[in-house]
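Support case: iron/sulfur cluster complex. Customer-provided input:
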Amino acid sequence: MRRTISIPPKYVVPSIDAVLKGQGIPEAVTPDETTTRLAQQSISIYRDHSDPTGIIMEISKPDFTEVYRGGGKNEEETPLDKIYKASDSLALFAVTVGESVSAKISGLFREDEFALGSMLDSAASLGAEMAAQALETFYAGYLKESGRFDSTVGVMQFSPGYCGWHMSGQKKLFQHLRPDEVGITLRESFLMQPLKSISGVIVVGAKEIFEFDDDFPFCSDCDTHSCRDRIEAVLNQ
Ligand code: SF4
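Agent response - structure generated as follows:
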């Protein structure tokens, strides 16, 4: 299975609360009128300029072993290494909210509109995450239709650059997936073009394979420990 997917923009529009949280404003704090107006404006600009598109491709375990090995720079032990080996299904993916949003962000910073530019940056990052989530949902639906998904199964995505999977892993991932078909390319630095893009692997398997502790050596440098929420979401799926 290999599909390109155009995601209706209305399904990947972040909420004002999410944008404000992305700006470091805690939920318990009520922002002033100007801040709220800027958040609303950023969402409106995002909505007008986003063009969410993705590509997803199933991959066998032996082929993913090759992709995951990449340039041999991964941490010795990682959550993904254990999880994908115990998984049932794997799919590479890349998704973007498009070039126009990034150009708009750069334009706002050039015009010294830092507050709005920063809000739009948060909105676009959240939109890209929602688009990646949409591909995850698509893959789960595809597996359900073919009888390979039920309530005992969970889904989680991982990306190069996080949780011990070295950023240089992007190279092999791009060679396999070829997301240039939907306009996503890789720079020398392993950053993607458009900037607001996400790539990685969607892993599907028995829920219990996704349970892991956040005590890998690299976890001490992690600001978010977002794996805790992600594991909880899988267990409650
Ligand atoms: S603590 Fe951070 S780096 Fe460690 S596994 Fe969780 S999300 Fe990844």
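The longest strand covers residues 197-206.

Case will auto-close in a few days if no follow-up is received.
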